[in-house]
């Protein structure tokens, strides 16, 4: 990779996948890992090389998802930028800060790192699950070979692409399974997948909500479902996620933390409901609400479960 390309790729990463995003992803993995392990009979939370690989893989999968989205949406982003959409005029691919060739190369570098990290973990688990996630992610990149059908229908795109998120958590569950064979996996772990998935689904919907006078040719959930209904979906999903989370770990999380999480959920529900009622552009930017919820919930779970358990480092 020559120096000019390296500079472009680094600039792209700093803008589209900055350190704060990497830290948030890492916090999400720690929260997930601790929740899964805390469901066992032992109060011990084990951190090993498997944990490191799982955390790095989640960050790389997230980055690969971002790269795939960039490559899939090149034509759409350029069109929206030409129309003057303020959310797209400064995109790296639009301004020329990064090229398609740069992203293709970065895609293969990230894919190679993922394979190198996961191949030594063992077969059949978790490597087969890893391959399944990688294959599914590639199919989303290819629009499941139905681009004209899926790319022109936001609801269908959501239905076909969103399963990637729970699949990622199933993959992480398989990493924990190889690390903690003493854990008895049951329906609670399936519920945990939903508890971590629903906020991500809420984020995906929340970032594509607009008031009527903000709409452009860009497809949004408010355009598809209406400004009265679309904002209520994230509100419901966040409420369900909080209910499941507290039901699973309430005995291991401080009461103050439970109240904080419940309060954040109530605020998020209020803000989404306010937009549904007012349909005003002043209230339409709600992505930050879900991001704040996710950050707070991850922090609470990682901190409380980590402090309340015996954390054992095993890197032998």
The SSE order reads HHEHHHHHHHHHHHHHE
Helix content: 55-70%
Count of beta strands: 2
**Class derived from helix and strand content:** mainly alpha
Write down the overall mean pLDDT.
Answer: 91
What percent of residues are in strands?
A: under 5%
Main sheet makeup? 2 strands, parallel
What are the segments in which pLDDT stays under 50 over at least 5 consecutive residues? none
Q: What would the principal axes of the Cα set say about the shape? A: globular
Strand order of the largest sheet: 1-2
Calculate Rg over CA atoms.
Answer: 20 Å
Q: Can you tell me the number of structural domains?
A: 1
Query: How would you describe the oligomerization state of the chains in this entry?
Result: single chain
What is the number of helices?
15
Distance between the termini: 35 Å
TL;DR of this structure?
By secondary structure, the chain is mostly helical.
């Amino acid at each position: 990779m020559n120096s000019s390309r390296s500079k472009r790729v680094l600039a792209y990463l700093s803008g589209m996948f900055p350190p704060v995003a990497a830290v948030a992803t890492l916090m999400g993995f720690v929260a997930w890992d601790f929740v899964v392990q805390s469901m066992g009979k032992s109060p011990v939370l084990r951190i090993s090389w498997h944990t490191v690989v799982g955390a790095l893989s989640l960050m790389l999968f997230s980055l690969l998802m971002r790269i795939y989205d960039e490559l899939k949406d090149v034509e759409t982003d350029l069109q929206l930028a030409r129309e003057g959409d303020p959310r797209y005029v400064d995109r790296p691919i639009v301004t020329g800060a990064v090229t398609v060739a740069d992203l293709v190369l970065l895609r293969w570098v990230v894919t190679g790192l993922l394979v190198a990290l996961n191949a030594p973990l063992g077969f059949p688990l978790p490597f087969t699950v890893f391959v399944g996630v990688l294959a599914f992610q590639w199919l989303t990149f290819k629009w499941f070979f139905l681009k004209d059908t899926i790319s022109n229908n936001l609801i269908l795109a959501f239905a076909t692409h969103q399963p990637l998120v729970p699949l990622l958590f199933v993959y992480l569950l398989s990493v924990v399974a190889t690390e903690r064979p003493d854990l008895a996996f049951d329906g609670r772990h399936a519920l945990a997948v939903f508890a971590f998935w629903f906020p991500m689904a809420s984020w995906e919907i929340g970032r594509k909500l607009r008031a009527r006078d903000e709409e452009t040719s860009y497809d949004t959930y408010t355009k598809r479902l209406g400004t009265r209904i679309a904002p209520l979906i994230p509100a419901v999903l966040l409420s369900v996620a909080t209910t499941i989370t507290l039901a699973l770990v309430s005995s291991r999380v401080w009461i103050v933390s439970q109240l904080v999480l419940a309060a954040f959920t109530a605020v998020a529900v209020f803000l989404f409901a306010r937009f549904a009622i007012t349909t005003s552009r002043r209230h339409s930017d709600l992505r930050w609400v879900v991001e704040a919820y996710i950050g707070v919930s991850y922090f609470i779970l990682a901190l409380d479960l980590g402090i309340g358990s015996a954390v054992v480092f095993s890197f032998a």
